[in-house]
Amino acid sequence: DNVDMKERTITIDHSILYRKIDGKFKFYAKEPKTKKGIRVIPMTDDVYECMKELRKERLKRPSTVEVDGYKNFVFTSISGKPLYPINVNKILYRIVREYNETAEEKLPRISNHIFRHTGCTRMGEAEVDLSSMVYIMGHADAKRIQKTYDHVNLKRVRNQMQKLNHKKLDDKEEKTG
Question: Where is the Tyr recombinase domain (predicted)?
């Protein structure tokens, strides 16, 4: 079990993939691409609360499914199997489609991978330091994060520029104080 509720951490040391192997589709476990991909991530309070709810739901329908020695999956189907990535995307597409039917401001089509981009962008907006972002995302260095995931927007740049105003005030106080 890679979710430690006592320590409030999630250990990332494998991925569960679903591919055709020897003519049959099956789930299998795979290690991360690099050693940096293996990490322990502290949960935010929101994630911790969601994990508590998911655990309650999982207790109602325990799973006996095991994939290459891994079990107790967090996100499962009614049958207890890990969710198929394509089904996760179908669910997301349906949610967006149903939302857009009545919403004035439409949502774009989203997939499960977009959550990595969104998560990294939100960390940037929250001013999580770059070294922590590199660790959380499981990359070897900051280049990929800066190039691919860490999206900058006008609001974020404005907030950064406001720091210069505060810095000027701090400098003036030091000179007069």
Answer: 1-162
